[in-house]
Structure prediction request, 279 residues.
Amino acid sequence: MDLSNENVIHIRRGEIEYLQFRKLNQYPEISHAYILKPLDLRSHNSNDVVQNYKVAFDSLDLKIETLLRPHQKHTDNVVCIHEKKNEDKPDIFMDYLENIDGAITDKSGITLATTNADCILLLIYDPVKKVIANVHSGWRGTFAKICEVAVKKMIAEYDSKPEDIVVCICPSIRKCHFEVDMDVKEECEKIFSYTNKLDEIIRVGEVKEGKQKYFIDTVMINKIVLQDLGVKEENIIDSGICSVCCHEKIHSRRADGIDYGLGSAIIFGNWDGSFFQIQ
Ligand SMILES: [Zn+2]
Prediction:
């Protein structure tokens, strides 16, 4: 299975497979990837997450000690990172990153990471102000508009202009598979009726065991919220890939069940030129 399309390129290096956005590859001062199966970045069983990141980082010519990964708790909390705490090892599983679902930095030499198994991950770059962000937006984060929190922070803290900001949407569960019950559908209607696009966002599904099901397009919601902030449509780059449809290569909680693994999106800034660089 090759997931390359007009927006992403599927790269294989030995055992390691990842996607890169063609748009982000236009900026030599940053590195990024969305890591595919078989690597698993979830801490479960005897899986060694840091070692697995190291395997990926080695193949990307990144140093493992640059890694910084929040815990992710389906919040809308986004932090600005001014420095890593650990100098010689990754900032992962650390208290200061508890309850955080998005991180922003303008510092060279920090690799911001997020993980998913169906949730949306957004890789964000402002090539003018040289600011990167990495945001985890599951349906709860999407309903809380965490992408808006992140972009507003980039504007307030780093003087970013929305029209300069590039947002890349990693593989996630899509409308074809994101089936929900009435409660989630009603919450969606309550929050997003103002968009006048509920007809496109929500599709009525089947009745299963007496319960009406619905399908929700959380990717579309993120796109609408971003465009309302002034992010240009052409700067919102969607991988267009459903994690359930493509679970052969992409970790999916719905497809893989209780023992699911995690994929990871990473982004790294190198504007002072002193760090390793992806080719
Ligand atoms: Zn699907």
